[in-house]
Structures are given as structure tokens and as C-alpha cells.
Amino acid sequence: MSDKTREQSTALGRLLEPYGRQVEKDIGQWLIEPDAPAELAEAVKYCAVGGKRLRPAIAFMSAEAVGGRMGDELTRRCAVAVELVHCYSLVHDDLPAMDNDELRRGLPTAHVKFGQAMAILAGDAMLTRAFGVLGEYPEPRAGLLAAELSWAAGQAGMIAGQAADMNLCKFPAGADGLRYIHLRKTAAIIRAAARMGAICGGANPSTLDSVSDFAEALGLAFQIYDDLLDVTGDAASTGKNVGKDARAGKRTHAAEIGLAAAGKAADDLTARAVESLAPLGQAGRRLAELAGLLSGRDR
After folding, report:
1. How far apart are CA 271 and CA 291, in angstroms?
2. Which residues, other chains included, contact 4 with Cβ-Cβ below 8 Å and sequence gap of 6+?
3. pLDDT tens digit sequence for 247-269
4. pLDDT (tens digit, 9 = 90+) per residue, 2-12?
5. DSSP string of 23-50?
6. What phi and psi, each to the nearest 5 degrees, are found at residue 108?
7. What was the pLDDT predicted at 257?
8. How would you classify residue 252: left for phi > 0, otherwise alpha for psi between -120 and 50, otherwise beta?
9. Chain segment 147-197, per-residue pLDDT in tens
10. Structural domain boundaries of the chain?
11. How far, in Å, CA of 32 to CA of 44, rounded?
């Protein structure tokens, strides 16, 4: 890791820290239902631990960018719901029938730790709990927010992206195919996090569009940077096994257009994300800073 990358990583940690601290507290409060079996609760807690908490941070930052507050309960519930959907997706992606990974966030994956059956159930529990966390809030917007998250995580969103990534459905060839996968597999949830936060913050339609455009470009860039790290990174720094995309024959920008061109494509998307925030003025500065720091991950 270069000195510049180390500095950017430290700055990213500082930026995300207050949002991560809030979501950790709220996950502790809302994750486990009172009558859940102890064995299931243990697995669920294990699966929800760690990570950058990037998606909750995007929800919080988007709310703040349009005049909302991190302490607003509906915003906090959105942040937790988005993170639980993300954590569930990681557990299921790691399963032997999917990506067959044994390391996640520097720890054994859920199916290695608890067995496949409990890992599947823990993922199911986090997914359903995400919508419970939203639905328990007595406010009409909770239904709208649940619909946003459901679409992003569902048959036309993240699940469609995973099906395409595993060649389980028909999708376009070439660059259009890569966009199809990444727009759904990764960018959809990041976009939902931003939109949900902005809705909680009271964004008008024009501002909501700007935040949506930002998050979509950011999500696409994030996936390309992630693919690059799978080629150039190591397990110690990424917290997961690397080189798996090549071994699985996955379609990535790194494989199809090379490392240099893929890096440029990701940088161009990052620039587009920042440009999308122009209508927000200074209010969008934290989101812009986040985009810049994410682009500095080691390649």
C-alpha cells in the first residue's frame, strides 16, 4: 500500500467513523427480535459485524446534504435496513453454490463458521428484519422507503445482477453487459441508500434526481475499483480472498479491457458522480469527498 493510499484510507475511516458509530448502536438495538432462538441470534450477530458501513454512511450523508439530520429516527432506520440487506447479500454470495468464499471482513464466512443451513437462515433473518426495522416506524414515508429498498434488492435489482454475474440469465454482451451486472449487483443498493436518506431529509424531486445520479455513478465506480482490487490487492488489506473473479471466469472491466482502462473508467465515473452534486453546492461536499476517497483505494 502506497503512502498516498494509506493516507486516503485513514481519511476515509475518519469520514465514515461517526456514521458507523451511529449505525453500530442502532443495529445493536434493532437487529435481534425478542423471541429469536439463541443459536440463530448468534449467527445473525456474527454476520452483521464489521465492514466499512459505507451504505449507511451514504444514507446519512444524503439526508444531511438536503437538510436532514443523522439523529432523525427514520433516517437511522433506513441506514440499518440498507446495511442489513447488504450483510444478507454477502452471506448468500459467499455460499458454496454462489461465489464459494471462505473469508469475509478478515473472518471465516458464515457457512464456514456455522454451516450452510444456518448461514442461509441468518441471511434470510437479516433480509426480513430490514423491512421490519422500516415498517415498525409509524410514518407514511416508511412504506415508500421500503419500496425503494425492495426494488433495489429484488428481482430487477441486486438479485438480477447476481443472476447475470453467475450466467444464470440472458443479458447483453460487451460493455452493456458489464453495466447491466454492475448497475444491479452493486449500484442499485448504493443508489437506494442515497435516495432513502434524501427522502428522509425532505429532498425535492430535482435534488433527489441529483443525489440518485451521484449514487448510481458512484456505485458503478465502486464495483470497478473492487474488481481491480481482486486483481491487485491481497487478503490482508481487503479482508477477503483475492483472484477469485479470474478463477471463476467472471466478467469484469479488469478482465475485458485491462487494468489501466478499467481504472480510467472508474475515475471517469467518480468525476461524473461529483459533477452530479453541483446543484447541491456546498451541501454536497461530504458526498463529493467520499467519492474522491473511495477512488483512492489501492489498485
Report:
1. 8
2. 296
3. 666 778 877 788 888 889 999 99
4. 666 778 888 99
5. HHHHHHHHSS-TT--HHHHHHHHHHTS-
6. -60, 140
7. 80
8. beta
9. 999 999 999 999 999 999 999 999 998 889 999 999 999 999 999 999 999
10. 3-294
11. 8
For residues 297 and 221, the answer to whether their CB atoms sit within 8 Å is no
- What's the predicted TM-score (pTM) here? 0.93
Residue 173 CA neighbour count, 13 Å, CB half: 0
Alpha carbon 134 to chain centroid distance?
Answer: 18
CATH number of 3-294: 3.30.565.10, 1.10.150.20, 1.10.600.10, 1.10.760.10?
1.10.600.10
Determine the Cα–Cα distance for residues 73 and 62; give it in Å rounded to an integer.
Answer: 15
**Rounded Cα distance, 64 and 282, in Å:** 11
Residue ranges for the chain with pLDDT beneath 50? 298-299
C-alpha cell at 30: 434493532
C-alpha cell at 110: 458464515
Grid coordinates given for 79: 441506514
Q: Is 221 left (phi over 0), alpha (psi -120 to 50) or beta?
A: alpha
- How far, in Å, are 24, 155, 204, 294 from residue 52 at the CA level? 11, 26, 29, 11
Q: Which helix (H) or strand (E) holds 83?
A: helix 73-93
What is the Cα 114 distance to its own chain's centre?
A: 24
